[in-house]
Amino acid sequence: MVQLYRYSFIPLRPIVSLAFFLSFLSHLLILTAQPDFRANECYPERGNYTNTSAYDTNLKTLLSDFTSDDTNIEYGFINSSYGQNPETVHALGFCSGDMKPESCRTCLLNVSILLPRLCPNQKEAVGYYDNCTFRYSYRSIFGIYNVSDVSFFLWNPANSTTLTDQYVPVLLDKVKKQAPTGGSHRMFAAANDTTSQSGNVYAFAQCSPDLSEHDCRSCLEDVSKGIQLCCNGKNGGRVINPSCYIRYESFLFYDYTAVSAQPSPPPATTIMPPPPQASGGSDSTGSQTVVKIIVPIIISVILICLVSCYLLRRRTTKRRQSILTENFGKEGSNLRSLQFSLATIEAATNKFSEENQIGKGGFGAVYKGTLPDGQEIAVKRLSRSSVQGTLEFKNEILLIAKLQHRNLVTLLGFCLEEQEKILIYEYVPNKSIDFFLFDSEKQRLFSWPERFKIIGGIAQGLSYLHEHSRLKVIHRDLKPSNVLLDNKMNPKIADFGMARMVAIDEEQGSTNRIVGTYGYMAPEYIMNGQFSEKSDVFSFGVIVLEVLSGKRNAGSYESYLLTNVWKQWNEGTPLQILDPFLMESCSKTEARKCVQIGLLCVQQNPEERPTMSQIVSYLSNLSIELPSPREPAFFMHSNPTTLVADLSLDQTHQSSTSKSAGSNEKSWLLPR
């Protein structure tokens, strides 16, 4: 007799409020009304939309057409997008490989109707029936395996230790290895063992057909680990993920006939040359012979050339894709448009000639280049002995490629070929602010309006990183050499190799690898490894005081900047810290307010520092009354040296579990 499942869906996240609990109960009632529906996940942290908004309209339009009768669903997979950025909606659905097309269409239709009710106003959601998975998102999800997505455990409460220990691992390993090799139309596998003394056992593995073989294999490896956690000693179990799932049972749960008779994809069309026409009676035998020999040779040469070009291009594409996958994993597919060939970069920089070199540092050299379309670029070529390693290189690409703001330097692309690590940026002609600021001759080119504009521009860029981008980014290495100036002396924040991304609602992060530059790092970051927006605010405050005074906060005796500024503030003479060149020309009101903002930013207690949005408001409205600053933190070191140190921090990670009373079937949420 077949043991039927009775499911309860309880993700292992703390229920932190009554509203959340009531929402969960309403979802559970909906699930109870749908006996085949197994689980769903909403992602409120990834964005919300309002009713009647453009995203709401696009979602409804896409869902209404998603499973229409004219949609090709022969191989159990649908992918579609609708709308214009940034309100585009992407949707994807796939069915179990043993389902017939019409049954698949019905399953996807049901879940596409149900899911928006379970996740109202959430921009991203995923739902699971027994035989199909459906998801939608504001971001592209095609061909991407997101490791951080939630997976669920489901198991049969009946015990069968012998069955699990002896037979299940073998079958699961078999389908896990076979499914990724099935190609884009057959990315699933089924297997069974009817020789077990404890009873029959059946296994099934499936990937979303848009995944690459590598990502499919990775996904199944991850979910198969979940089987060991949830279902050891059970008569059946499964782990489901938005990109794949794996399952075993003691009964036949898939269509054995359909699996055995699954159709192969249609053969590619082959274009053949037309048959030779009969020659006229007036043609000589010699002419016919020449034609019969030359024409096939020409056709053969053309075909060989075409095939060679195709294979070469395919090999190059595969090599580039392999490089992306090896270095960036699941994110690699989103970076194809940013990938430059080494030949292109060498041509643009005249093979990295000394004449094109415009800068050099511990990371390597920077070259000016010109692309074939005439666009000027800055090429940052990391040396193999660079302090900035592979991790920082990848981090900068993944972060800055997703950020766009006039006060952030624009990353145009990168190159990873022949052990080269190269970043390609927009060309910013006026170097960094320290090039002018700390040179006794060049600092005279920095008038008060330009310095005030630079302070405001840096504030705008940081405010975007902290509060207005779709990611919350902590720069962690903000200093004058990492702020570039364009041809109009507008500041652009650069060098995101040390930056960290945190959740939108996350206040702070911690690390045991401290990176940055003495004189610009906040005290809580140096001492405890804690970083947040407020640690960037501290760095900004130091830069403000340096821009005002023309002196470094680290270096010789007279550069103990924070001490001197605090002394002048207490004595009521804050303008005495200004660069002497500015004393006569600056706006006294603006300058005094900037000194006060700088001191507010470098206070010892992070909570007493303003946010970047507050600072932007202070700078744009001089009539706003500012708080009185407290004594700043003091850091006095002899040399501004980049720090990379390991701290022994005791970090513990806790997870919570919950179980539904009166339920025989249990469901766990894998930790992100």
From TrEMBL:
Membrane topology classification: Single-pass membrane protein
Ranges for region Disordered: 264-284, 651-672
Residue stretches of biased makeup (Polar residues): 651-666
Compartments, record wording: Membrane
CDD domains in alphabetical order: Gnk2-like (cd23509), STKc_IRAK (cd14066)
Binding site for ATP: 380
InterPro entries the record matches: GNK2, GNK2_sf, Kinase-like_dom_sf, Prot_kinase_dom, Protein_kinase_ATP_BS, Ser/Thr_kinase_AS
GO biological process, one term: defense response to bacterium
Major location (coarse): membrane
Cellular component terms (Gene Ontology): plasma membrane
UniProt-recorded Gene Ontology molecular function terms: ATP binding; protein serine/threonine kinase activity
Domain Gnk2-homologous: from-to ranges: 37-141, 146-253
Domain of life per record: Eukaryota
Transmembrane segments: 12-33, 293-312
Species of provenance: Acacia crassicarpa
Protein name: Cysteine-rich receptor-like protein kinase
Keyword Protein biosynthesis: no
